[in-house]
């Protein structure tokens, strides 16, 4: 058998006692690092392919201060196989601050282990595999020392690990990630949107009757418009600080807090007695919800590449628009509870939705992952898969072990012109889109297709059309037939066309169709938009700050949009208001041209690499070649 022994200021690996089934690996010298039992998580499955039916287990270990009576500082590791011993060596190297990179390749009867110390040439250790247990080597016994040749290792570590995965293994890993994220984040975002849009929904519950919310709180339609604007104002104020706490608190804990507290505030809406109370409740609702979307988007950047972001964004926005269906059906059902226990229907809407939201926060706390290399992720990912998930990301992506805060990344984001280009595009698009979404229940009710309470059901077709279109957009985006900015220009032009229809005197059927497709294209716009945006984010802090900053600026459209629909514009069916919305969407198209100019080289490169990945996957492999390079500056 072989044992390794090398004395250096960086690391000492000594001994193997296979009779006892133990190995000792410890770091020596001033740059050494202690290891703890829970840190031994890196189990390279590629080293255990001789037993494909067995799942590798982490070695049992305990911290020791001596071994066979000799002082030592490290771990006593229970061996289940030779690969585990090699992995203890890997773990010790990873714990040493001087180790820059390492990789391990297994062949039929040998392992090639390579590592690089900072400031030194790469080193390679060839290790033969024994076929039997004829020799026992213990600490202090005669050892076979394997030399450390200094020739360069030809493969890049990242390439070696990525290329060790097949297309099926890649799909298996990403299916695991999808199962953990897609449905959950979709439900989170749908619930957020149900709770946000219910202000527009309850406005038309029992409209014209004494138990209508406007009647009970003695509010005019113009005063009620401030309900949504105030919500967005607080959202803007608290979005950035909320997202900057995401890394420090961990996504699971912070998102659970967000959902639980907004559910509590939402339930309190049922107790308001005047417009001032409603305004205060909406302000606190925006405060508590702040950080949900940018937090999810930032977290997804540590699991999905930019060219894959269309998929989780598609699920989020698909479920978001299911909120239109769910919210309308819930409001329709609850409308029959009007007067039950002395509460109006709109109070029941807020109370029941708030209580459900609080319960859902518990689900998020139990299920939502944090980062690929977080301890909780080891429960459903093998260490090899954890390593792969981070290595497959581009250099600019956030990582598990990034610092909780970096002023440098914040400053770089503020100096980047792309930050402001994307913000301008979103503000203008939101100004038009939020205006239509806010006014949609009022417009559809005014068309006279259905009376109370069936008027709520008229909001379902726009939501259904939007969900189907989002699914198609996500599929089309994944194929990389055209770049994301090109797709956005097409969507933006289509949205503009339907908003223009709402500016003219047309029959009620044309108005309803324009409402359906105007809402559809506005929502579909954000599928390629957020995937496009994720490509120019840098680091954990930079990603969290930039997404939150953009979300705050973009929500200005949510503040202004509802105010466009003042009662003085109602005489002509809000044609003037829709004209302003159409102008904003046209301006957004122009802003996207500027943003495209700033990012066109990256986007062409992303399309190229995406096509190479699709081809490699079709051939049964994983693309491990040169990745997209993301400059910090535009």
From TrEMBL:
Subcellular compartments: Membrane
UniProt membrane topology term: Multi-pass membrane protein
Domain Major facilitator superfamily (MFS) profile: 181-603
Organism domain of life: Eukaryota
Ranges annotated as spanning the membrane: 226-246, 313-336, 348-368, 460-478, 487-504, 510-532, 577-598
A Pfam family it matches: MFS_1
MF-aspect GO terms: transmembrane transporter activity
Main location class: membrane
Key words of the record: Membrane, Transmembrane, Transmembrane helix, Transport
This protein's GO CC annotations: membrane
Entry-linked InterPro entries: MFS (IPR011701), MFS_dom (IPR020846), MFS_trans_sf (IPR036259)
Name of this chain's protein: Major facilitator superfamily (MFS) profile domain-containing protein
